[in-house]
Amino acid sequence: MNKDIEASRLRVSRRRALALGGTISLGGLIAACSGNSGTSTTTSAAAASTTTASGTSAAATSGDAVTALLAKAPQCVMSKEETQGPYWFDVDSIRGDIREDRPGTTLQVAMRVQDNSQCNADGSIGAVGNAVVEIWHCDAGGVYSGFESGSLSANGGGGGGTPPAGGMGEPPSGAPGGGMGEPPSGAPGGMGGDMGGSGETSDGSYSVGDTEATTTDDGTYLRGAQTTDANGIAQFTTIFPGWYMGRTTHIHVKVHIDKKTVLTSQTFFDETLLDEVYSQSPYSEHTGRENNTNNASDGIYDDTGLMTVEKQSDGSYLAVINLGIDA
């Protein structure tokens, strides 16, 4: 494993990470945005008061660059509902910068939520403001925060690893995104244990039907949520995700409106771009992708989730997608 990745995992502190995430919980933010579904021209006071975790703001990429690239991306396409997989939990952290010092190539992510019933060809109408967009993905070594021990041991300690049995299949009937089962008795949000203060996890009441995962460690890196602005856009600063056995590279996403999860999906990247990014450290030390799953052989990959990406002058990447929903 890359030594920078290994060292960064030793610095995990859930209390520290959640304290940096601001004082508004995910449940609180979704509640504050309740009643603002559909096309919106205002942003809730709760959303306006949130801050990024640290370092570069999620708004570091200019708005003009974001909207220009979104205009090049497919418009008014219904996003495919996908399994949330085994590595989701309610991190309850409202922030735009989700890196928490994870090593890797900087990736600015912009997601625009569009109501397909109103959307037009150029995306100028149909934007959904005040939706809550939540994303999570693995680090450069293929491991998810909150589930390090399981995903490492599943691959002989090398990072990534095969998800728990049944975790990558279709969600149970009636459940929006699958999940890992009920949280431990008395533990809010499945995290367990006396977190208190701004770090206390949500009780899940904002999304009835989503069961929360029971985590194995206190990591929260590469997870977070933001509200969409009046143009339907939510932005994040993260790193380019790695990969793990059995899956192509992807980012998980949920969209919440009026206390309901209206979309659970995954986004993907072009294979040529993946080859470019993974030829450099720390990704180049995570070997084996040439013999592993790519987009064509991945059972979950869908073209509607393919992100439009441009390399920036500073060597980072801007990745955008229009998320079509039935609002």
Low-confidence segments, given as residue ranges, are 37-60, 158-209
Report the portion of residues in β strands. Answer: 15-25%
**Distance between the amino and carboxyl termini:** 43 Å
Structural class: alpha+beta
Radius of gyration: 18 Å
Going across the major beta sheet, what is the strand order?
Answer: 4-1-8-7
Give your account of this protein's structure.
The structure is a single chain. Helices cover 16% and strands 17% of the residues. β5 and β6 (260-267) form a beta hairpin. 53% of the residues are buried. It has helices spanning 3-10, 14-20, 26-33, 45-48, 63-72, 148-153, 271-278, and strands spanning 106-115, 132-136, 223-227, 233-239, 251-257, 260-267, 308-311, 317-325. The chain is of the alpha+beta class and 327 residues long. The longest helix has 10 residues, at 63-72. The strands form two sheets. It has a four-stranded mixed beta sheet, with helices on one face.
Quick recap of the structure?
By secondary structure, the protein is of the alpha+beta class. It has helices at residues 3-10, 14-20, 26-33, 45-48, 63-72, 148-153, 271-278; strands at residues 106-115, 132-136, 223-227, 233-239, 251-257, 260-267, 308-311, 317-325.
